[in-house]
Amino acid sequence: MKPEDFTQRLIKTFLPKNLRRRVLHWHKFRNADYILVSYPKCGRTWLRVMLSHYYVERYGLVNGSLLDFANLHYQNPAVPKIFLSHDVLNEVLHRTRPPEIISNDKSAYFQRKVIYLVRDPRDVVVSMYFQRSKRDTGYQGSLLDFINDEIDGLNTIIRFYNAWAAALPKIDQSLLIKYEDMRANPGATLVKLLEFMGHNPDPVMIQNAVDASSFERMKKMERDNEYNRSWLKAGDVKDEESFKVRRGKIGGYTDYLEEDDIAAINRLINEKLAPDFGY
Questions:
Q1: What is the CATH number of the domain that holds 59?
Q2: 233 occurs within a structural domain
Q3: pLDDT digits (tens, 9 = 90+) for 165-206
Q4: Is 263 part of any domain?
Q5: How far apart are the C-alpha atoms of 8 and 14, rounded to whole Å?
Q6: Which of 19, 80, 145, 185 could form a disulfide with 33 if both were Cys (CB 3.0 to 4.6 A apart)?
Q7: Bridge partners of residue 176, in order along the sequence
């Protein structure tokens, strides 16, 4: 048994449930070769599936394997240990945290190799609304209520983004990936990520990974529960808004809001969001 496997088993077996999640996160944080950070609903699942498909073909791993920290590394050490996190400093709870207690101190990341995935916060908050209302917490309010929610709303996303805009220049080994670039050219994004991690990507395998991770293919995976994971399974196969892989449309937030509401959200973004990511 690998040391990480043994440590994680000990944590899961002997620690009380209220401590388990936090300790597991810090264990992975300390032992990862790379840390992929994103706010929820920024496209991490899609990037994760693309990367998994590439590694499976490139290194002859078990077909259907999905990257989960060090599981692919155990199959072949050429695959790095990658911790996928919504920021270990704030990911203690299953729900995100009020903006006033989101930590601005990212010094724990300064000596680490960090990949930061970002998406237009207006699209993120709408996607989060469908996640909360149709997949997990059963949120009962309207979309506008959710946007103004003190826990999951737009102000929390802005605070999270601003903290990372300030932190990234202080991290010597970091890579910024924008969801919008990934949608425009997923292959180029995957190449950039693999090169950052020290690989020399094979162009044919890159295209195979992109094809295998198309939105149509990933929706089918959800319908059929191919990965046999509850978080990658449609809430209701008859309701596409309940899928984890929903639409992925850039600027899709405008389809759900009136013009006055869009203008109000844009004002909030312009007033409060750091300009570093171009939103």
A1: 3.40.50.300
A2: yes
A3: 999 999 999 999 999 999 999 999 999 999 999 999 999 999
A4: yes
A5: 10
A6: 80
A7: 116
Separation CA 54–CA 97 (nearest Å)? 34
Task: Please name the residues in contact with 90: beta carbons below 8 A apart, sequence gap of 6 or more.
Answer: 96, 97, 102, 103, 160
Mean of pLDDT over the chain? 87
State the pTM of this model: 0.88
Look at residue 210 and tell me if it is in a domain. yes
Residue 145 neighbours by CB distance under 10 Å = 12
> Could you report the per-residue pLDDT of 20-70, keeping only the tens digit for each?
888 888 899 999 999 999 999 999 999 999 999 999 999 999 998 899 999
The pair phi, psi for residue 231, each rounded to 5°, is -75, -10
Assigned token pair, 242 = 């309940």
3-state helix, strand, coil in the chain (%, to 5): 55, 10, 35
Q: Backbone phi, then psi, for 69, in 5-degree steps? A: 60, -100
Q: Which pLDDT value is given to residue 97?
A: 60
- Give the three-class secondary structure for 111: coil
Tell me how many domains the chain contains. 1
Between 227 and 42, the more confident residue is 42
Question: Residue 21 domain-assigned?
Answer: no
One-letter identity of residue 255 = D
- Structural domain for 261, as ranges: 32-277
